[in-house]
Design brief:
It is flat, with a radius of gyration of 22 Å. The chain has helices at residues 2-27, 35-52, 58-80, 84-89, 93-130. With 138 residues, the chain is mainly alpha-helical. Keywords: Membrane, Transmembrane, Transmembrane helix.
């Protein structure tokens, strides 16, 4: 059954590469645009859909989780193969897009951390009001 997780990854990867190629053609570039990222999103959505509809056996889920965890190092290895010098010579667009991506990630992470802290503080505050034995020093 674990092999079905690998098959699901392969289907998502092939669809992602195909969609990335179509996106590249639509943008007028001769390269794949985001195919690996699209494949990862397809894998996540397929896994969530199958879990929701109880069509994902435990062993298949283990295969999907394994390849989902392995996918990130594969993406990093693929990105390391790109020619960074040529990208920087091509103009400041590569540098600006990299800075924008880092900024967006930092903002999203900060927002997630703030919402988690607020949720934790409201949960602990509601516990204090529900339990008269707890004091403000706890």
């Amino acid at each position: 059954m674990i092999i079905f997780g690998t098959a699901l990854l392969a289907v998502c990867h092939l669809l992602g590469i195909f969609i990335g190629d179509l996106l590249g053609q639509a943008l007028g570039v001769k390269t794949n645009v985001g195919g690996v990222g699209i494949a990862m999103l397809l894998l996540i959505f397929a896994r969530l859909y199958m879990q929701k509809n109880d069509k994902l056996p435990k062993l298949t889920e283990l295969g999907v989780e394994y390849w989902g965890a392995m996918y990130i190092p594969v993406v990093v290895a693929m990105a390391a193969q790109q020619d960074m010098v040529a990208a920087l010579r091509g103009g400041p667009v590569a540098l600006l897009s990299a800075l924008a991506a880092v900024a967006v990630c930092a903002i999203v992470i900060a927002a997630i951390n703030r919402t988690e802290r607020q949720a934790e503080s409201s949960a602990s505050e509601s516990m204090r009001h529900d339990n008269p034995l707890l004091t403000d020093t706890e």
